[in-house]
Amino acid sequence: MTQQKGVSVELEAFFRKEAGVPDKLEILPSSVIEDDFGITGDDANILMDAFFREFPVERGDYDFHRYFEMEASGFPIPFLDKWIKRRILGARQYVRQSLNVSMLQRAIDRGIWDSQSLQERGDTPPPGK
Prior knowledge:
Low-confidence stretches: 122-129
Mean pLDDT: 81
Strand order of the largest sheet: 1-2
Largest sheet: 2 strands, antiparallel
Order of helices and strands: EEHHHHHHH
Distance between the termini: 9 Å
Shape: globular
């Protein structure tokens, strides 16, 4: 994959097509999917499903709830919503982590989603791998 600014041309094209990121918005390795592109909930789920279809990346330990919240559950009382999520998710509940473009690029470069290694900074393989 051809890379520029630490983001492959293919990944940048994917974001522009699948997420509707306009040409005037620069896609950087540090761009956070939720904060910088406003992709959350069902839209994030659709985007990540498309990511795994588009690129040769095994899902590994990818878990949507690690990075995103689902759409509003319909419970108007926030503490009740959190209690229900704790009961349903149990031990799988994570402190949400930010998902940025460099993590997606590293997953593509490695061919597998490994949450721990993708979260580490500065471990991008050298170009050409």
